[in-house]
Amino acid sequence: MQSVHIVSAYDEELKYLAKRIAAMGGHAERMVEQAVAALVSGDPELARKVVADDIVLDEAQREIDDKAIIIIARRQPMATDLREIVGAIRISADLERVGDLGKNVAKRVMAVADAGQPTSLFRGIEALANMALTQLKEVLDVYASRSVERIGFVRDRDDQIDAMYTSLFRELLTYMMEDPRNITPCTHLLFCAKNIERIGDHATNIAETIYYIVTGEQMPVERPKDDRTDRLVIDAGSPK
To answer: Which of 2, 203, 216, 236 is the most exposed place for a label (fewest CB within 10 A)?
Structure first.
């Protein structure tokens, strides 16, 4: 809950930052949703739209940074207000990166579209994206409501995204080993899956920033990570 100041313009400035963060969050969500939809349907027009839309987040982040610096210089905020402003800078950076990750998925649409990959692979990508987007939406709701009691749940669930990513990684490797023609499209899908998994990480970063804004304390450094792709070995079997 933001404090109320004697100078009403100060309150409006802080509210403006919060509104811009909310707008950035909605735009980032749409970019990721559309990027995954373009990937699944092989829609190049939608993919190009996502790539073009990234500039909106870039400009919004710069605007928030500039506004925050002006507020700090003019108001010399302390305590909660300072955390609010610094938090807006940090959250806008995370949301800008989410947009970049959506754009990176969109850029690979044409590379995958012509390969005719199994439907199950796209179902895996969709499921991973749905989980990451749910994480992002929930953390943006927490930012709007400042309900810090929900932050732990949002943060801890990141290991589910990592586990799903590891499973999808294994499945894609298996397809690549079964048929060398799958190597190129599946490699692109691996990058797409990693980009989506990173969205969950940025959502977790935002949750930690919100906790700091509201409480003035940092959350513990340790958090569950279940990305086991660095230890994954696929048995190619004995040569025939």
So the answer is: 236
